[in-house]
Amino acid sequence: xxxxxxxxxxxxxxxxxxxxxxxxxxxxxxxxxxxxxxxxxxxxxxxxxxxxxxxxxxxxxxxxxxxxxxxxxxxxxxxxxxxxxxxxxxxxxxxxxxxxxxxxxxxxxxxxxxxxxxxxxxxxxxxxxxxxxxxxxxxxxxxxxxxxxxxxxxxxxxxxxxxxxxxxxxxxxxxxxxxxxxxxxxxxxxxxxxxxxxxxxxxxxxxxx
Length: 209
Description:
The chain is of the alpha+beta class. The protein has helices at 69-82, 98-116, 126-143, and strands at 3-9, 14-19, 22-25, 29-34, 38-47, 50-57, 61-68, 93-96, 149-153, 158-161, 167-177, 183-193, 198-203, 206-207. It is built from three helices and 14 strands.
């Protein structure tokens, strides 16, 4: 994955991916910035392995971002091939990704199959289980740094209700791949309020939020 971290500008903050001739953000509600709409890329600074850039997009939009050297080179090469000819479309382009939804549903059923083989004291609501597992997975993906990617659960998972009835907790082992393709096993713990909103994510011994 070629990740570009937006840090300021007209598109807010967050991680975007360079995919072919587009910058993309989001899982189901996808936002895109076609490279053809980029007018200028200016390299501002280089600190360690990070490149800091300012990008001018469309008629009057800009953003500042940081990325790693290889991703910057890939972005700039794509820009030289197709960029510099904006037509002034409304940015970002918003789409809904059916492919990602299908992939997520397959992953949910996979996790659910593992989950049902675990603790018999878990809640009997399979839809809630799947929704919470999916939310936890998405939070892990959003928190991944430097091009790392979530590659699915690798063991049994369990879900239990807090004793005070205030919410739920999901805990499961998973596998994450770094930008070099090296896999690492880790353990995730996600806390939710009763409405289903995630409030805490912990990976191994590190509290993410």
